[in-house]
Design brief:
The complex is a heterodimer. Chain A is 0% helix and 51% strand. In chain A, strands 2, 4, 5, 6, 9, 10 and 11 form a 7-stranded mixed beta sheet that branches. Chain B is mainly β. In chain B, a hairpin with a 2-residue loop joins β9 and β10. The chains are: A mainly beta, B mainly beta.
Chain lengths: 115, 109
């Protein structure tokens, strides 16, 4: 079982470049999430999609955009990368939109460095 | 903004010792989840507690949800090196989780 698959696993960008992080889940989950994890800051929610066709901002959305392409796929785009966006990015999915007692299943992350 | 504070931030113990990790908030959550994360991987769910006062056991791990559903604790009995990792608590409300910053546990042989 693949679960949640993120690509790429590693990426180095120069300031100002753009890129899209891809995420796909094969569990037929309704909700999908993008987080960033920084030392001493924990996991912070960037954007989420409670169901196919909807997206909403999380705690730290500035500098990012998302697309819920279909039920399986949820991508995160950095339009003009900045060094402050150097982080480990995690995609997650969850079966139920509401309530949130359902577990979230995480991918293994994308390690992004911006020079 | 809902916040979850975890303590301690770092914990280094010897194999066989017991330990407790705490997760506290001023907000009420509909559920409290505990995850463990190992280097290079994403967090993996250990347990979900939803009822105030609820206690769940997972082998040597005991999880408790506070009566007011604002806090939780994780107790590990006779810790083993395989328990080493980052332990994260997360509070659920609507369709989002708010994560604490985590407790990095190292169990030395």
């Amino acid at each position: 079982n693949a679960g949640v698959t993120q690509t790429p696993k590693f990426q180095v960008l120069k300031t100002g470049q753009s890129m899209t992080l891809q995420c796909a889940q094969d569990m037929n989950h309704n909700s999908m999430y993008w987080y960033r994890q920084d030392p001493g800051m924990g996991l912070r929610l960037i954007y989420y999609s409670a169901s196919e066709g909807t997206t909403d901002k999380g705690e730290v959305p500035n500098g990012y955009n998302v697309s819920r392409l279909n039920k399986r796929e949820f991508s995160l785009r950095l339009e003009s990368a900045a060094p402050s966006q150097t982080s480990v990015y995690f995609c997650a999915s969850s079966e139920a939109s509401v309530p949130s007692n359902q577990p979230q299943h995480f991918g293994d992350g994308t390690r992004l460095s911006i020079l | 903004t809902q916040l979850l504070e975890q303590s301690p931030q770092f914990l280094s113990i010897q194999e066989g010792e017991n330990l407790t990790v705490y997760c506290n908030s001023s907000s009420v959550f509909s559920s409290l989840q505990w995850y463990r994360q190992e280097p290079g991987e994403g967090p993996v769910l250990l347990v979900t507690v939803v009822t105030g006062g609820e206690v769940k056991k997972l082998k040597r791990l005991t999880f408790q949800f506070g009566d007011a559903r604002k806090d939780s604790s994780l107790h590990i009995t006779a810790a083993q090196p395989g328990d080493t990792g980052l332990y994260l608590c997360a509070g659920g409300s609507n369709y989002k989780l708010t994560f604490g910053k985590g407790t990095l546990l190292t169990v030395n042989p």
